[in-house]
């Protein structure tokens, strides 16, 4: 058939919302499954790669299960963050937080989430994500995590107005650093 993804989609957001809200939960779930299958199979021609990623993540999250759910949600969060749509990015990232089990995915997820919170001025939540990221002990082949941790949480405390705690954390960043490590220099300079 010559039917495309876009041809089946109501053009106006209010019409789409009205249609979706009028569906039973079972019908809505069934449609999300069908859209996801269509996007996986035929969606490449109808969307840019980034918009396709956003659509895949949306439908997979609405279904609540798919082997690539965490991966797509993280990719959607990255895409939206790169577009500076931080509130929309957080909607994907927070839903994916408990789904991302691979260390690399969790590392990236927590860092992108912390950044999005910070960009929205939600500094306490940003600091909490950074604390969680650091506590999980992600791989650190360049030996920069401690320096980045103290610097990032220091910036969060500075933005929260807690200047003594910010100064303490900046000092810890400097103390944990190695000026002979070229990977740390940019972080040490900011501390």
Computed CA radius of gyration, to the nearest angstrom = 20 Å
* Coarse morphology: elongated
Round the mean pLDDT to the nearest integer and report it. 86
Main beta sheet: strand number and arrangement? none
Sequence of secondary-structure elements: HHHHHHHHHH
Low-confidence spans: pLDDT under 50, at least 5 residues?
Answer: none
Total beta-strand segments: 0
Count of discrete alpha- or pi-helical segments spanning 4 or more residues = 10
Work out the helicity level. Answer: 55-70%
Structural class by SSE content: mainly alpha
Terminal Cα separation, in Å? 60 Å
Structure notes:
The termini are far apart. The chain has helices at residues 13-21, 25-42, 49-63, 69-82, 86-96, 103-119, 123-135, 145-159, 163-176, 185-190. The protein is mainly alpha-helical and 191 residues long. The model has no long low-confidence stretch (mean pLDDT 86).
Outline the secondary-structure elements.
Blueprint: H1 13-21, H2 25-42, H3 49-63, H4 69-82, H5 86-96, H6 103-119, H7 123-135, H8 145-159, H9 163-176, H10 185-190
Helix pairs in contact: 2-3, 3-4, 4-5, 4-6, 5-6, 6-7, 7-8, 8-9
Brief descriptors of the model:
mainly alpha; single chain; 10 helices; elongated; 191 residues
In short:
The chain is mostly helical.
């Amino acid at each position: 058939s010559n039917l495309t993804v876009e041809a089946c989609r109501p053009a106006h957001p209010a019409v789409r919302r009205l249609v979706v809200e009028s569906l039973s939960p079972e019908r809505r779930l069934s449609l999300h499954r069908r859209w996801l299958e269509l996007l996986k199979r035929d969606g490449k021609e109808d969307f840019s790669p980034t918009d396709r990623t956003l659509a895949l993540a949306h439908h997979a999250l609405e279904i609540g299960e798919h082997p690539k759910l965490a991966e797509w949600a993280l990719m959607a969060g990255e895409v939206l963050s790169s577009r500076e749509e931080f509130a929309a990015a957080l909607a994907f990232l927070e839903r994916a937080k408990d789904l991302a089990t691979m260390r690399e995915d969790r590392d990236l997820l927590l860092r992108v989430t912390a950044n999005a919170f910070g960009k929205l001025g939600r500094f306490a939540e940003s600091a909490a994500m950074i604390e969680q990221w650091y506590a999980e002990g992600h791989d650190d082949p360049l030996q920069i995590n401690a320096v980045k941790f103290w610097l990032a949480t220091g910036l969060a405390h500075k933005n929260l107005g807690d200047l003594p705690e910010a100064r303490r954390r900046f000092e810890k960043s400097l103390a944990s650093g190695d000026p002979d490590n070229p990977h740390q220099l940019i972080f040490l300079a900011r501390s």
